[in-house]
Amino acid sequence: MEAFKKHRIWLFFGVVILLPVAAFALFRWYGDRIAPLPYFGAGYTLESGDGPHFSVPSFAFVNEDGQLLDQAFVKGRIWVANYFFMACPSICPKMMADMRAVQIAFSGDDRVRIVSLTVNPEQDTPAQLKAYAVKRRIDLRQWQLGTGDKKALYRFARKGLGIAATDGDGGPNDFIHSDRFVLVDQDGHIRGYYDGTSPAEVGELVKDIRRLEE
Question: What DSSP designation does 111 have?
């Protein structure tokens, strides 16, 4: 009888502990493997899964070699975008190190591209960006840095990628400072936003890119 009671106690604890763990694991598996990635409008707004979906508009900036950086670089590919500036002492070094980890995860994979645009084009010239890329060992075949007209850069950040909640005109007193990485699919639809300073969220970004490749 005593042994039976002990078995009942262990069974009770097994159900109480293992069932929630199993349910959580099943939920994570469903989210990671079966549930489709969401679609976003510019600015974190979730869209329905049926579409039509917001498409990132065309852009035209200047890369680290002084050449045109536009939609041709990412056309038909999965791509990740972010904004940064070279003199940033706070979040940008961490973001760019994490973005390089993303690039390394897909090194040599022509289906994946990265675009990092500056919020400080007056200082971040193509020559400065090239030196920055060399120092950080950025593979420029897959990952390009962009500069250009400040108003155009800021308009694309707000209206194209939706990484800034504030309004502004890209004027002298306007400044954007965001930690967001933006995931865009092969059709130009935004499929995710991630904290570029969080290893866990950057890990989720890598997983989501692989899901889009399947």
Answer: T
Whether 196 and 95 have beta carbons less than 8 Å apart is answered as yes
Who has greater pLDDT, 168 or 69? 69
Task: Write down the H helix ranges in the chain.
Answer: 2-29, 91-105, 126-135, 150-155, 199-213
Domain of residue 79 covers 39-213
**Structure tokens belonging to residue 144:** 């390009």
CATH number at residue 102: 3.40.30.10
Q: What is the mean pLDDT of residues 68-79?
A: 98
Contacts of 183 (CB under 8 A, 6+ apart): 37, 78, 79, 80, 190, 191, 192, 193, 194, 205, 208, 209, 212
Pairing between β-strand 143-147 and β-strand 180-184 as defined by DSSP bridges: unpaired
Which pLDDT tens digit goes with each residue over 18-57?
444 443 333 344 444 568 999 999 777 888 777 889 999 9
